[in-house]
Amino acid sequence: MNTDLQTFDVTVIGAGPAGLAAALEADRQGAKTLLIEREARLGGILKQCIHDGFGIVRYGEKLSGPEYAERFIERLPDSGVTVWTLSFVSGIERVGTDSFLTVITREGMKRVRTRSLVLATGCRERTSRQIGVHGRHCAGVFTAGTAQYYTNILGKLPTKRCVILGSGDIGLIMARRLTIEGAEVVGVYEAKPTPSGLTRNVSQCLWDFDIPLHTGKTVSRVFGDARLTAVEIASVDGCMCPIAGTEEIIPCDALILSVGLIPENELAQSIGVPLDPKTKGAIVDERNETLLQGVFACGNALHVNDLVDYVSESGETAGKAAAGSDRPERELLPVECDQSLLYVVPQRLDKAAAESERVFFFRSSADMDNALLTVSRGETRLLSKRYAHLRPPEMERLPLALSSEQLAGEEPLLFHLEEATHA
Ligand SMILES: Cc1cc2nc3c(=O)[nH]c(=O)nc-3n(C[C@H](O)[C@H](O)[C@H](O)COP(=O)(O)OP(=O)(O)OC[C@H]3O[C@@H](n4cnc5c(N)ncnc54)[C@H](O)[C@@H]3O)c2cc1C
Q1: SS3 (DSSP) at 83
Q2: Which residues form ligand 1's pocket by a CB distance below 6 Å?
Q3: Range of the domain at 10
Q4: Which among 223, 11, 13 is positioned nearest to 138, based on CA atoms?
């Protein structure tokens, strides 16, 4: 047991793209920085994403996940960042605005005191139990991420003939990957009327490989004892409930789920970080500081991002702010959205922030053509911007300069979207 207290300015939990960017940026700002990762290798989920398409915004190149992660990992030896792998943060206590971490490592338990804490713990996938698929939970029901891990890391094909439920990006990518590896993907089934993944993934992963997409359908039951033998597919009504009489049985040996990601925030909750029910991540200001002073959040732990490039950006934002040694009093103003948006991040603005430009990320709640975004405070309109197309799977990044006069008073900022009406 090694319980001597070690002290750092900034400690980052999670070494996926968000945590790597946060730690490198905190170090660049001169902070004594610790990066903690529970797995043996750095890179987070990118280690298993061997397809290309990462880094288009940041580098103008189509990199694979490991290549993208390597751009950050290769900078670590020349930095001052202390890296602990195979180290799991099992608990956090707060004393004033400092955080005390309990970390389980190969050398035993370690204790860390840190002035700033950055939560970069990523997200996890929803499972069959969370979406209420009936039947025995026999072998052969995988989340798409687990199927990706089997295929790309372990080199083992988890299925010969499968059904994919949900059209999230990981499911679309796995439909293509399993097909390339010789499995038969009977189809991708999606309860909603439109796919949940990026348009480019629908086109490149399904259409290019003749894999059918069935919308308005769900898996209502699974069959099998030791191993899955078939699934029951049914059409759904407007409330997403299976319609009796539409059932169809499809023989297969695996059901692969791509039904949503949930930010991993158990540690955040254990210290009372307030979460946003819309994103399921922390409520943050424009520097990604949560409502607990000295605690920051970034990447998919903050909200599920569509592109890794934005994950790295949010890590850098958090790392830079976490490294700051001063703790200025914040004057937080709420940022809200109505039902035309799924969410907006950050959910607070610090009126006292040094920089006038703030970067917002949002998603529309429905497909919209020729949409008008307005940002207002009461009767005052701060921004009107047109978008040719908005789709919920595609996250939007909006830089917005706001003067201190525009932020005077207590009124919240309101984001609203409207589709142009066609005469
Ligand atoms: C299964 C899965 C597959 C994905 N596949 C794709 C894809 O194919 N294409 C794509 O564009 N995007 C994909 N994504 C989205 C992808 O997650 C993001 O683009 C990006 O990797 C998120 O980065 P992150 O650093 O926030 O999280 P992650 O990459 O998930 O990294 C979080 C890290 O935190 C560590 N951690 C968590 N808790 C602790 C703790 N208590 N102590 C220590 N370490 C901890 C984890 O081990 C992990 O390494 C996928 C996501 C998932 C969940």
Answers
A1: strand
A2: 13-19, 36-39, 44-46, 49, 88-89, 120-123, 125, 145, 148, 169-170, 173, 261, 264, 267, 299-301, 305, 308, 311
A3: 1-125+261-327
A4: 223
Q: Whose CA is nearest to atom 48 of ligand 1?
A: 44
Number of structural domains the chain divides into: 3
Query: Ligand 1 mean position to 102 CA, how many Å?
Result: 22
Does an H or E element contain 163, and which? strand 161-165
Domain end position, chosen among 327, 352, 385: 327
Q: What is the pTM of this model?
A: 0.94
User: What span, in angstroms and rounded, lies between the C-alpha atoms of 120 and 19?
Assistant: 5
Which residue's CA is minimally distant from atom 37 of ligand 1?
121
pLDDT tens figures, 81-94: 999 999 999 999 99
Which ligand 1 atom sits closest to the C-alpha of 145? 1
CATH value at residue 397? 2.60.40
* Environment class of 60 (CB within 10 Å of its CB; exposed 0-12, middle 13-18, buried 19+): exposed
Of 235, 259, 283, the one marking the end of a domain is 259
Q: What is the CATH number of the domain that holds 309?
A: 3.50.50.60
Q: Which residues, 6+ apart, have CB-to-CB distance to 32 below 8 Å?
A: 7, 8, 9, 10, 80
Residue pair 37/85 in contact (Cβ under 8 Å)? The answer is yes
Per-residue confidence band for 329, with pLDDT thresholds at 50, 70 and 90: confident
Do 141 and 287 sit in the same domain of this protein? Answer: no
Q: Probe ligand 1: pick from 121, 151, 205, max atoms within 8 Å of CB? A: 121
Helix/strand/coil for 70 = helix
Domain co-membership, 321 together with 208: no
